[in-house]
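From the pipeline queue, job 12 of 40. The input is one protein chain; the requested action is below.

Action: predict structure.
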Amino acid sequence: MIPFITCIILALIAIPFVIRMCYKHELYDMPNGRKIHHFAIPRLGGIIFMPITAIGMFVGLIILSKGHNEEVEFYLSSYLMVVGAMLIYIIGLIDDLKGLEASHKFIIQTVAALIFPVCNLMISNLHGLFGIYELPLWASYPITVFTILLIVNAMNLIDGIDGLSSSLSILILLVFAYLFHQIGALLFSLLSICLCGAIIGFFFYNFYGNIGKNKIFMGDTGSLFIGFVIAYLVIKYQMKGWGDIEYRDGALLTSITLVFIPCIDVVRVALARLLKGKKMFSPDKTHIHHVIMNMGLTMHQTLYTILILFIVLGVINWGLYVGGMLITWIFLIDILIYSSFVWCAEKIGNTK
């Protein structure tokens, strides 16, 4: 709890300094045809996430080693994750400051993602999803890299309205903090709760801040870093067994459920663009938050709607799993619910 509160307080203190720096150097997210905001907003809120998370984890590790006599074991993947996270953080920062070609960002993201299978941190078993269990290395490597890239970019692209990416991240990280704590993986629980605290501190300024005073966006620095950490936690949690940790039934389903909405939204939008003959990553206003706002809902109402959908899918998946339904059918039901929701929202929006 102390590291969590420490990260919240540090974020609340740090963000005003970042806002003043953005105004001084004119570092704004400028409005354009594909963005919802109509004013120049400071965009570097996400630069606080990595340093504050690191400080929180340092405090937490001191408490664990001194106060509770707990031993925290560091794995090779833990150190490599730091390297990958720094790469992601740096390219996000460069993109926010000067702009970066999408192809260049994708190359660095791929390099960072390749770190995981290299140190044997990968998706090696689908546990019955579509009838597939153990994966050969030639399939496990690309699936792992694709999953990481998907999650990183999904958390980046869903950051289209105030509080959406940050609030989804807060919920995901809180769940992971609890899950990893339950199995005694304290390092990963600590990572989850510290980043969560940093995001909560940022959220108050992003969601409740006043334009021209204390409102700020996280920028690519923040959303890419969040996506990378969440991707790491997703891959780690679903692994069949690591260290002294035994595999947990339903771990893969849990990981899928937590990142389902941002990931399926990216897939839907990309496929729709291809079917229309557009480039897969060409910007437009077809993401789920755009569709919901076209119904006539406000930005805040849109956020609440997506959060409710996130919680509802989680509850449904848990109920179906406890009821003995196969993971394949649960996954297909999720797709059906999401697709039906978007279809209905689009129909309502088209009548406006």
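Job complete. The mean pLDDT is 87.
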